[in-house]
TrEMBL record:
Domain (FIST): residue spans on this chain: 3-148
Signal sequence bounds: none
Protein name: FIST domain-containing protein
Top-level division of the source organism's lineage: Eukaryota
A UniProt-annotated Pfam family: FIST
Species name: Calcidiscus leptoporus
Amino acid sequence: DEMPGLSLLACTLPGETAVTPFVVTAERMPQWSSLFRADDEGRPAFLLFADPYSAVTQVTSILNQLCPGSVVAGGLSTPPLDTTPSLALYTAGARCRALAPGSLVGVRLCGPRFEMHTATAQGAAPVGPPFLVTAAKDNLCLELDGAPAMQRLQEVS
């Protein structure tokens, strides 16, 4: 978790599938109208890759309003600090560049024979028995099975 990582997207798409990349930064949103066309064949789908300091919630809300029912999937890249870039963008014919913290890159996919289906796979394995959360405050887990959460974690480590 404390070492740099790399995610790479490669795929083979059905013919006539349009691929439209876009970038969202703190200073710039895309022209949303360029991502939606009246003559689209098929339902657009979107892949989003963002850091948690980006406008990912706003972007997913906009996509849902403009294209309800479309699949929106992707992932978060969490940098160690909110001032550290965690995304880089390479497009054919251009140099690879790090994107400013708070950025999001997306890809719109659409075509007459294109469909996107999603599955969730958590890249982790259980380290002990399941516990019931018995106390929490906001997003903090305070107790598991009636004991302090840290105590339960130490029991299984």
